[in-house]
Amino acid sequence: MAIVQVLQVILIAGLSVVAVFLAVLFVIQKAITNPFPVIKRRKEEKHFLDPIRIQNVDFPSVEDAPTVDLSVIVPAYNEEQRLPKMLEECMSFLEEKAKDGVFTYEVIVVSDGSSDGTVSLGLKYSKRHTVEKFRVLELLDNRGKGGAVRLGMLSARGRYLLFADADGATKFSDYDKLEKSMKSITKDWQSDGIVVGSRSHLEQDAIASRSLFRTLLMHGFHFLVWLFAVRSIRDTQCGFKLLTRSAAHTLFENLHVERWAFDVELLYIAERLKMPIAEVAVNWTEIEGSKLTPVWSWIQMGVDLFLIWFRYAIGAWQLNNQNKKHVS
């Protein structure tokens, strides 16, 4: 009986500590958190360099009418070494697709405060293909992958917008799969829709090649995603996602998280707004050079997942589906 009483005391004490912690966190988050994201963008980040005419040109806005079929957004932080292979595959595919004389595209490489030759590399492609097809958005400070993708999306001209990782891990020709799926869930670019490239079909192979510790981390992360945020998608983190212009406008102007967990919040918002979402298997190969550090990054993303859920749950973060701007 004494043991049972001790356990009851421990349980009550533990629950009391949790309750106090959540109450304090509630007060802090309500006090310091802006309900809508304030998207800051320096004056120098609002234009791109035309390397042929040697002059700066203002980026358009996602609020403008689209002028090309597809915009490809490539976030890049110190990717001078890995980016060329990805861009060669990407441009080769897009150029072949454009031979029909109907399909039009642009690629926007977003240098996220890079200190290597990422910008110079991008400008070489811009000069080779012209700024009608290839542009470089240079961010002066490192914002995080989500912040880089967001500003690329808000500067795009496409009816449909794809963001693709700079490492080229996903076979770019799988875009056709995403495009086909998008047509099945939306009427056109003016309706909301998002198609997510997925590696979930490769999970068993990944488990076989990973250590037990990393496998446990992977399953733990997937469980936290399901528990706190996204229920309809198995692989939230694959860097190959296609959005309609309408969806991109709404989602990225509501997005708060600018670092690794931004994909989760993006899909969480889409689910909350009941946007059509599809998940499509893609060919994916692990590429060396990831900026993620296995343990710390997983812990950081776990904390972010909880805070995404908590902030929306208490109303510290809110959704604005009226496409009103909160930009400074």
The helix count comes to 10
The percentage of residues in β strands lies in: 15-25%
| Helix content, binned percent | 40-55%
What's the total count of β strands? 9
Look at the helices and sheets and give the structural class.
alpha/beta
Mean pLDDT equals 88
Biggest sheet statistics: 7 strands, mixed
CATH superfamily: Spore Coat Polysaccharide Biosynthesis Protein SpsA, Chain A
Report the CATH topology name.
Answer: Spore Coat Polysaccharide Biosynthesis Protein SpsA, Chain A
Report the uncertain regions.
206-210, 324-328
Characterization of this structure:
- Its main location: endoplasmic reticulum.
- It is a single-pass membrane protein.
- This is Dolichyl-phosphate beta-glucosyltransferase.
- The chain is of the alpha/beta class.
- It has one domain: Spore Coat Polysaccharide Biosynthesis Protein SpsA, Chain A (Alpha-Beta Complex), CATH 3.90.550.
- It is built from 10 helices and 9 strands.
- Strands 5-4-3-6-8-7-9 form a 7-stranded mixed sheet, sandwiched between helices. The chain has a two-stranded antiparallel ribbon with strand order 1-2.
- Helix 3 links the parallel strand 4 (105-112) and strand 5 (134-139).
- The chain is elongated and about 80 Å long.
- The N and C termini lie far apart (63 Å).
- Mean pLDDT is 88; it is low at 206-210 and 324-328.
